[in-house]
Amino acid sequence: MPYPSTIVDSTPPPPSLNDCWNQIGVMGNRSCDELKAVIHCHDCPVYAAVGDSLLEREPPPGYVDEWIHILAETTNSGAADSNGMILPVEETISIMIFRLENQKLALPVRILQEVTHPCAIQPLPHRSNDLFLGLVNIRGETLLCASLSHLLNVDCLKESALQTDSKRMMVAGVPEGKWVFPVDEVYGTYRFHHNELHEAPVVITKAAESYTQGIIHWDGEKVNYLDSELLFYTLNHKML
Prior knowledge:
Structural class: alpha+beta
CATH superfamily of the largest domain: CheA-289, Domain 4
Order of helices and strands: HHHEEEEEEHEEEHEEH
Helix content: 10-25%
């Protein structure tokens, strides 16, 4: 009887791909005659055909069943608490964590529309001010842009202390009323149990005019979880 190590895998090897873009295309020596017409390999029919063949190929044995099991577990589970216990999704809160100056803040993911690189802000004569910065064009849609730093009274740091390459714009709100907020950095999403939300210290609550509804601990730091309903209520009424 042969040892397990000598058993030969009967699964046929994947077919070889014509990766001409790596040889004579934009990632190779650029000697392909088709480049004069298509400019880039991404617009070439050969590149598209290879992509289609990858999507249409048969999955390996057990692949589909494995992912069905993984997705079923993910749907029926939530975040893990400090003891490693999985909590139901309905008992957790998903947030987007970002930075304004030296303050870590968070808004609920459900109101987040998009995170994008900084865009030009068009001020409005006799309307723009320290809070309302102006209008921003995001993917062809004109949106109102506001300064959360001014609204929350976040102390400004020296220009040299800021990481300008990490600046982003966050689009948040509902379809009937979306706002754009310039931020200094976006860290990503985080899910926590509502019992992990601690009462905000009085000094923080006063400084942010009660926009902070609680404090959470993330990556060894304290994050102000903002009251999004109060925040958007204030912004919308200040624009009337």
